[in-house]
């Protein structure tokens, strides 16, 4: 699989949020300011140190691609997702009721009251801190455009598509700055895609990535709010909690989440698609074959909803299952989703299992070719 300027066999990485160092959360300096760290040297030093600690865990595990870990600081990482972006774009007011968005609906949802434009860098500080801490390829994650549009109380644009297109143009500006500063991979987390795609999502995505000299991956998620899979809420259910947590019995069959993103995703101008396999098994890989997916695929093979750390052998078995659907030359490996709901000690162990399991299968492939 092509990573930057090199071909890497079964490259490994993690998805999304990683647990912040405990000394960082809840402190007065654990804040990510709007724009750059211009005046507050203490916050900048603390932020760089926190990112450095997360980078260290990934390098110690042996991952091939290093992620920024999404250090936002302070509050819930899910709430920070909305604050982080809407505070860096014009047209937003930090007020509005929650929205019935699968797995995120208890969160504060901001309101769009004017024209959306980019006002400050989104992730430049993340990139610089990560790049300073490693010489390996760097991946920076963005919340998806459809996610932000769906989580917005739209009071300005006539249609959600118009709002999403404005966000896409703001992202495009930010993507270009990140690419110019040496980002190898930009990951876009479109975790509402499995709950339905209309006729504009791919157009908006392609607008966002147009003219950007960087690899683009899309991660789509089966849900990881409070460690539970997401589901589409029943509108007849009057209890607010039903909009958030998966209430199906453990014996209920898991829905095929990958099916709704095809065939639309075939027209996306991306370099790789990523979604989970570790928890759900290989059934969701069938749409790749059914729709002749020929681009790289990054398989999540670490179950982030379990506190049990996989063995390297278990991870290797999952990778072998994926290889029945995806050629080794097109396969990357990751966690199912972000590790934010797990203790850092367990998260670090899961990353080691990912790297060790990949190494086992990588050696098998090399031996077969010898």
UniProtKB/TrEMBL annotation:
Gene3D superfamilies given in the database record: 3.20.20.210
Entries under Pfam families matching the protein: Meth_synt_2 (PF01717)
Keywords: Metal-binding, Zinc
Record keyword Magnesium present: no
Family matches, as SUPFAM superfamilies: UROD/MetE-like
Record-linked PANTHER family: 5-METHYLTETRAHYDROPTEROYLTRIGLUTAMATE--HOMOCYSTEINE METHYLTRANSFERASE (PTHR30519)
Protein name: Methionine synthase
Source organism of the structure: Nocardioides pocheonensis
């Amino acid at each position: 699989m092509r990573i930057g300027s090199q071909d890497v066999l079964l490259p490994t990485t993690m998805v999304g949020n990683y647990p912040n160092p405990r000394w960082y959360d809840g402190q007065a300096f654990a804040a990510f300011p709007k724009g750059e760290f211009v005046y507050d040297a203490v916050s900048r030093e603390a932020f760089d140190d926190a990112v450095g600690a997360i980078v260290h865990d990934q390098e110690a595990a042996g991952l091939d691609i290093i992620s920024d870990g999404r250090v936002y600081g302070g509050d819930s990482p899910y709430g920070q997702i909305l604050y982080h972006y809407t505070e860096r774009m014009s047209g937003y007011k930090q007020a509005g009721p929650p929205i019935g968005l699968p797995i995120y609906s208890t969160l504060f949802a901001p309101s769009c009251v004017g024209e959306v434009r980019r006002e400050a860098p989104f992730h430049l500080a993340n990139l610089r801190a990560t790049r300073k801490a490693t010489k390996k390829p760097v991946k920076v994650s963005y919340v998806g455009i459809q996610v932000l549009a769906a989580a917005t109380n739209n009071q300005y644009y006539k249609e959600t598509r118009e709002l999403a297109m404005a966000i896409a143009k703001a992202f495009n500006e930010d993507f270009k700055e990140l690419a110019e500063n040496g980002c190898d991979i930009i990951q876009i987390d479109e975790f509402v895609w499995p709950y339905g795609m209309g006729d504009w999502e791919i157009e908006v995505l392609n607008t966002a990535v147009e003219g950007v000299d960087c690899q683009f991956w899309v991660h789509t998620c089966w849900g990881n709010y409070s460690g539970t899979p997401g589901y589409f809420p029943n509108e007849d259910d009057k209890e607010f909690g039903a909009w958030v947590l998966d209430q199906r019995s453990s014996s209920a069959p898991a829905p095929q989440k990958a099916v709704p993103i095809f065939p639309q995703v075939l027209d996306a101008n991306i370099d790789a698609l990523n979604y989970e396999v570790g928890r759900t098994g290989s059934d969701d890989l069938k749409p790749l074959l059914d729709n002749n997916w020929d681009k790289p695929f990054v398989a999540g093979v670490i179950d982030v909803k379990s506190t049990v750390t996989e063995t390297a052998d278990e991870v290797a078995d999952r990778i072998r299952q994926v290889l029945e659907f995806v050629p080794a030359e097109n396969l990357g490996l990751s966690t199912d989703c972000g590790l934010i709901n797990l203790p850092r000690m367990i998260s670090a162990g899961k990353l080691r299992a990912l790297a060790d399991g990949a190494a086992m299968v990588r050696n098998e492939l090399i031996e077969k070719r010898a």
